[in-house]
Amino acid sequence: MTDVLSPQFSTQPYWTEALPPFGETGAAPPEQVDVIIVGAGYAGLSAARTLARQSRSVIAFDAVRIGEGASSRSAGSLGNVPKAKLAQINARYGEAVGREIYREARIAREFVEQLIRDEGIDCDLQTRGRVVAAHSAKAFAKLQAALPTFRDTMGSVEILSPDRQREEIGSDAFHGVLVVNSSATLQPAMLHHGLARAAIRAGAHLAEQCRVTDIRRSSGAFEVTAGGKAYRAAHVIIATNAETGRDTAVMRRLRRRLTIVPAFALTTEELAPGVMERVLPKGRSFSDTFQILHYMAPAGERRLVMSGRAGRSDGDLHTKARRLFSYFRNRFPALAETRVSHCWTGTFALSDDWIPHIGVEEGVHYMLGCCGVGVPMSTYLGHRIALKILGQQEQASAYDRPLPAIPYWPANNLFLPAAVRALSLRDRLFR
Ligand SMILES: Cc1cc2nc3c(=O)[nH]c(=O)nc-3n(C[C@H](O)[C@H](O)[C@H](O)COP(=O)(O)OP(=O)(O)OC[C@H]3O[C@@H](n4cnc5c(N)ncnc54)[C@H](O)[C@@H]3O)c2cc1C
Predict the structure, then answer these.
(1) Which residues contact 318 (CB under 8 A, 6 or more apart)?
(2) Which of 20, 7, 127 is nearest to 72 (CA)?
């Protein structure tokens, strides 16, 4: 059998291959500002844009170059739904909170679409909807039972039984599908560049390759050390998500409330004529109902992007690509002759309740625990933190609740591979 990997297989993200480096960060930032932001991914940049538009002086520092972080490595899903299942949120926080969390996830997606339009960001935004395919009969029954709540929180949603799922996907391997009409896809690195430009246009300072190594309170403000230099600000926002390290005391404490897991994405070579239409007849994105879900969507006109579980932690990106792609090829017969051109990796930050959080720790604001839905949620919640600092919130966000502690948090996430395997096992056992 021929290898599914292209002879030109690359382990760099497909999205940045043809994108020129950002390189527009400009002059050195001032030493004193209203707000310092640690991390210039979607969350940090979105907060910077909102604050700067309200005439606040702001610097967003990033340890790496703009375009190298997770925000340029995602699969590009701009979805409507948090990672946590509605039943899980209801069980933990009650139905009223569950409803709000789901309702605000939709607002987050709408916010990002509006931002893209307002700023004229060219990032191939496609609002064609999402097909959620049930991986078992039980999963389909759960989708059916939750339909009224989905309609209430996500808008236009319909359910198709297995005999009609071919209208949406080129596969008979599932047990019926839910169609969410408003979900979108985009080119994530182009969104990230566009957001960085929008923040700069609004007056924010960006400093790349400038790691924050200390944050301490001093006379009612914060002293921040970045790139070896001292800065001062009235407010600090930590927007480091899965890259939250041990750089400062407050980051070390917050990191213990996150589980960091590896994530993988791939793109196919250009598809042969007719294949796209046979795999995803309406050009919608696809996901299944596993907790660690598989995702697929058009990447431009001729390729597909895929992400999801890629097997155990061992193995290089070649192995990961083969494993991940085999999930789709085994279920979508039209992919039989397709090959993989790129496969890359990054990390997810999972919170204990599988929802993103904004909050305040020792006077420092944070936006953490994106759980793999940061394209809408980091962008939206960065904006929400900015509104909070500006005192312009009409009501608190449902995501504004302290990041919960993780029981038995393993030092350095040493037992992480086991934890991820446990989730995969749970998916298989509780079908
Ligand atoms: C393979 C993959 C596929 C994904 N697919 C999707 C998807 O389809 N849809 C979706 O919604 N989400 C997806 N995600 C998740 C999404 O990419 C993230 O949730 C999102 O980018 C997080 O944005 P952020 O701004 O919160 O954090 P990031 O983009 O990670 O930004 C944090 C930044 O903080 C910086 N930093 C860390 N420490 C310091 C320090 N001490 N000083 C200065 N800077 C620091 C880091 O360098 C980093 O650039 C995917 C992620 C991966 C890896």
Answers:
(1) 5, 9, 343
(2) 20
Ligand 1 neighbourhood includes 237 CB (under 6 angstroms): no
Ligand 1 nearest-atom number relative to CA 344: 1
Full pLDDT tens readout for the chain, 431 residues: 578 999 999 999 999 998 998 987 778 999 999 999 999 999 999 999 999 999 999 999 999 999 899 999 999 999 988 888 888 999 999 999 999 999 999 999 999 999 999 999 999 999 999 999 999 999 999 999 989 888 887 788 999 999 999 999 999 999 999 999 989 999 999 999 999 999 999 999 999 999 999 999 999 999 999 999 999 999 999 999 999 999 999 999 999 999 998 899 999 999 999 999 999 999 999 999 987 789 999 999 999 999 987 665 567 999 999 999 999 999 999 999 999 999 999 999 999 999 999 999 999 999 999 999 999 999 999 999 999 999 999 899 999 999 999 987 665 455 555 555 555 544 544 44
Helix (H/G/I), strand (E/B), else coil: 267: strand
Q: Are 116 and 125 in contact (CB under 8 A)?
A: yes
For the structural domain made of 5-406+415-429, what CATH number should be given? 3.50.50.60
Tokens of 112: 């990002």
Which of 318, 377, 374 lies closest to 345 in space, CA to CA?
318
Whether residue 379 has its Cβ less than 6 Å from ligand 1? no
Ligand 1: centre distance to CA 242 (Å): 6
Q: Where are the domains of the chain?
A: 5-406+415-429
Look up residue 86 and give its two tokens.
């509605």
Closest residue to atom 51 of ligand 1, CA basis: 74
